[in-house]
Amino acid sequence: MALRKDSWLATAATLLCLGLLTMLSWSSGATREALVVYCSHDSIYSEQILREFERKYGIPLVIRFDTEATKSIGLINLLIAERDSPQCDVFWNNEVLGTMKLQQRGMLQPYRGAGFERIPAAFKAADGSWTGFAARLRVFIVNTEQLAPTPEAIKVRLTGGRSGDLSRVAIAKPLFGTTLTQYAALWRELGPDKLPDMHRNQRDRGLLEVNGNSVVKDLVASGRCDFGWTDSDDYFLAVDDGKPVEMLPVRLESGKSICIPNSVAIVKGTRRLEMAQELVNYLLSEEVETRLAQSGSRQIPLGPVDDDSMPKEMKRLREWAAEGADLKSLQIAHADCLKWLQAEYLQ
């Protein structure tokens, strides 16, 4: 009986080990089959879109989000660090300049699918290495109980001379995200002498520099600040909270607005190319652009959509977006501007 018992225990142990090995093998296989997405767009909007893709196409996703304070640049630096051994398959960026940086380094896999075809040429790389969609605008958010929401009132405050107090005006630190895009556009228009002088003048006058556009929105919505620079999607969060705010488009010296699309790209070296292409097509579809336009962010469709399905605010937003500056020509200005800003803040 003892021999039989020992034999039974040995058999059970063997079967248990085999079962564990099978489970580990399945788990490892499932991980390999999951599509890895790096995403710097706000998770409150982007995760719903990505999980819907999972449900529709049966393709599991592993999603890595960025933080508000280091929007996009954190994931871009990570992608560069992983260049020799890519971990990411698809990069959903909340702007385009960082994506163009990856393009310059030859890190993106060109793809011109159905989604690429519906986006205008101004918002995509000609070779298909990245494509823009669902844009937002750089705007002034103004507390209407503190300041008249007019370009003249803002100009008076900003050009109030060296002694004019800006302690009730806020901006996100320009090292990251869409504020960096704004600064790169200013660098191209004002040059490497005038922009640093303007920047230091505003800081000397008490301009509040905070960690992200959402903080700017909160400061203005609460009345702590009179106005600030933010993005249109953050502005609409304050509107939906019933705050006394209005927005005006930020305009460059040329009169152009700053329209910043999301962008999507496939990382070169992906082992899941077909699945990555499926996700890119989905993100660039009319369905997704419509959903993002109808969401709290009111993001601006770049491809054709059903106008009747658009929220009432979209007409004004699309008019401003049509006046947008050419961001595809900002690559040199972006690099030079970022180098200067890093010297200002990080040394």
Output the keywords.
alpha/beta, D-Maltodextrin-Binding Protein, domain 2, globular, 347 residues, 48% helix, 10-stranded mixed β-sheet
Topology:
Elements: H1 2-33, E1 35-39, H2 43-57, E2 61-65, H3 73-81, E3 90-93, H4 97-104, E4 108-109, H5 114-117, E5 131-143, H6 151-158, E6 169-172, H7 177-204, E7 208-210, H8 213-221, E8 227-231, H9 232-240, E9 245-249, E10 259-267, H10 273-283, H11 286-294, H12 314-321, H13 331-346
Parallel strand pairs: 1-2, 1-3, 6-7, 6-8
Antiparallel strand pairs: 3-10, 4-10, 5-8, 5-9, 5-10
| Quantity of strands, as a count | 10
Top CATH class of the largest domain: Alpha Beta
The low-pLDDT segments are 1-32
Distance between the termini: 77 Å
Q: Which assembly state applies to the chains in this document? A: single chain
CATH superfamily of the largest domain: Periplasmic binding protein-like II
CATH architecture of the largest domain: 3-Layer(aba) Sandwich
**Which class of secondary structure composition applies to the elements?**
alpha/beta
List the total number of helices.
13
Helix content: 40-55%
- Tell me about the biggest sheet? 10 strands, mixed
Mean pLDDT: 90
Describe the structure.
The chain has 347 residues and is α/β, with parallel strands linked by helices. It folds into two domains: 29-135 and 261-318, D-Maltodextrin-Binding Protein, domain 2; 136-257 and 335-346, D-Maltodextrin-Binding Protein, domain 2 (3-Layer(aba) Sandwich), CATH 3.40.190.10. It is 48% helix and 16% strand. It is built from 13 helices and ten strands. It has helices spanning 2-33, 43-57, 73-81, 97-104, 114-117, 151-158, 177-204, 213-221, 232-240, 273-283, 286-294, 314-321, 331-346, and strands at 35-39, 61-65, 90-93, 108-109, 131-143, 169-172, 208-210, 227-231, 245-249, 259-267. Strands 1, 2, 3, 4, 5, 6, 7, 8, 9 and 10 form a ten-stranded mixed beta sheet that branches. It is globular and about 60 Å long.
